Amino acid sequence: MKTVAFQGETGAYSERAAREFFGAAWQVMPCRTFRDVFVALHEGHVQAAVLPIENSLAGSVHQNYDLLLQYHLHITGEVILRISHHVMVLPGVKWENVQRVYSHPQALEQCREFLERRPELEIVPSYDTAGSAKLIAEHGWHDAAAIASAQAAEHYGLEVLHRSVESNHKNYTRFLILKKEAVKPEAHAKTSIVFSTPHTPGALFKALAVFALRDINLLKIESRPLHGSPWHYTFYLDFEGTPSQSHCQKALDHLSEISDLLRVLGAYEKGKVIE
Amino acid sequence: MKTVAFQGETGAYSERAAREFFGAAWQVMPCRTFRDVFVALHEGHVQAAVLPIENSLAGSVHQNYDLLLQYHLHITGEVILRISHHVMVLPGVKWENVQRVYSHPQALEQCREFLERRPELEIVPSYDTAGSAKLIAEHGWHDAAAIASAQAAEHYGLEVLHRSVESNHKNYTRFLILKKEAVKPEAHAKTSIVFSTPHTPGALFKALAVFALRDINLLKIESRPLHGSPWHYTFYLDFEGTPSQSHCQKALDHLSEISDLLRVLGAYEKGKVIE
User: Fold this and answer.
1) Residuewise pLDDT in 10s, chain A (275 residues)
2) Residue after which a domain boundary falls, among A179, A213, A240
3) Which of chain B's residues have a Cβ under 8 Å away from the Cβ of A60?
4) Residues A239 and A224 occupy one common structural domain
5) Which residues span the domain enclosing B47?
6) Beta B26-31 vs B2-7: how paired, if at all?
7) Beta-carbon separation of A55 and B62 below 8 A
8) B175 close to A (CB below 8 A)
9) Structure-derived torsion over alpha carbons of residues B22, B33, A51, B132, reported in degrees to the nearest 10
10) B202 to chain A: which residues are within 8 Å by CB?
11) Which among A82, A109, A222 has the least Cβ separation from residue B223?
């Protein structure tokens, strides 16, 4: 049976992304850190990995871009998952009896309006959403609730009392699918690259011209501040198309003329949005 | 006495940024959430606020950009702080006797190489770096250490056993200084804006042309994925100069012709890097 690695406790949003992408034919392997995920794939203990790369509220995960540059793996797909937070308790516990609510600080902030309707509740930040569910199940607490995913509720045998309690429902995380071998996507494909330019006025403008002059659509652009290396920037860019199309390959050739570094991280089919 | 609000426990990196910027003449006020920081300033309980906006390893904090759009406050300055993690214990405790290490998962990941030299250590993720130091001081644990800032060690009466144990020393966080009134900076000034464009090929290229055509240097560019609103993007952009310079104001006028939304978040002097 094939295995896909993810970071976090069982019931984490990354696990859901893995299951949505790979289905029941694959098993999942939780890892403690993001680096552990890369090592597991690099050393062949698993056949794929799932990695969160950006969230619509929290931003891009630069450290995961660093790991992508460090380990020569390939992006072969993506999944966009709507993050929906639920309030869960031990079976039979009533909301009126809950005195403490556990979750990751980011999830607590995202559910602030809901929590403020009961200001007497004690809010306890913890390191992980799924970990909060685990905590309540393991301790058998009848006066506490966790805010986590539906998968965490199911895995730890908790009952969901209130669904989708986040204030902003436009909360999506984009996950990358990594493998050791690159794929050659057919339709609706996109390409992710990293490049850096000399920091001169207009350098980025020139870099984007290589795409604009060929009518290539940009899907993401982000400058990475490197405060240790003044006047040098790294850029993350996703564009529509793949290097197997000649106008895209020409744009990449053109870009390499004017950049200090250029790496294609992968070409892959655009991901579905899982609501 | 004037007061500046920050998010986190006493000893948090945000508190250090506030003290570096404002000095001893101001007092600091810890807040539970980022929104609490905005509310404190908006309602006049404090005269300034300090807000982390991007980290060189973890990325931009999109949620804080959302709060900047929601509350009509002004960016009036910035501080760039090198994040340095230290190992701290109760006075007299020896490193050989430490069996558990507490910190925020991100800090633990950043200090991974150091921690792996003693693989028998139990690593315990917690919700906050300064909160981990507080935990050890409050419980009087003689077999545990925290990884946190020098300020946290000082505040909770802990002893630093190992300094700067992070693997990547290029770990910087950029903090914004917010006030109710805008400032008119003199020298080395920059401007932060938010804008959105219709998602047509080349729309971003046209937007950047308004700066390139006037030789205005870009300092940051980032697209914000809005998965709930397909084909619409929001961009964060910092450029060199201020609207009080006519070529910059003309660039902004030009940009407003081709964008759906344009907001100037503030013009301010470029921040010093605090090592």
Assistant:
1) 999 999 988 888 999 999 999 999 999 999 988 889 999 999 999 999 999 999 888 788 888 888 998 998 999 999 999 999 999 999 999 999 999 999 987 788 889 889 988 889 988 878 788 989 999 999 999 999 999 999 999 999 999 999 999 988 888 899 999 999 999 898 779 999 999 987 777 788 889 999 999 999 888 999 887 655 655 678 999 999 999 999 999 999 999 999 989 999 999 999 988 88
2) A179
3) 59-60
4) yes
5) 2-83+172-179
6) parallel
7) yes
8) no
9) 80
10) 212, 215
11) A222
For B59, the closest of A32, A59, A169 (CB atoms) is: A59
Taking an 8 Å cut-off on Cβ atoms, the answer to whether B226 and A56 are in contact is yes
Contact of B232 with A247, CB cutoff 8 Å: no
Cα A65 from Cα A25, distance rounded (Å): 29
CATH number, position A53: 3.40.190.10
Question: Residues A175, A212: one domain?
Answer: no
- Number of domains within chain A: 3
Could you identify the residue written with the tokens 């900076």?
B185
Active-site residue set of A: 173, 175
Q: What is the dihedral of CA B265, B266, B269, B272, to 10 degrees?
A: -30
Amino acid at B117: R
Contact pairs from chain A to chain B, CB under 8 Å: 143
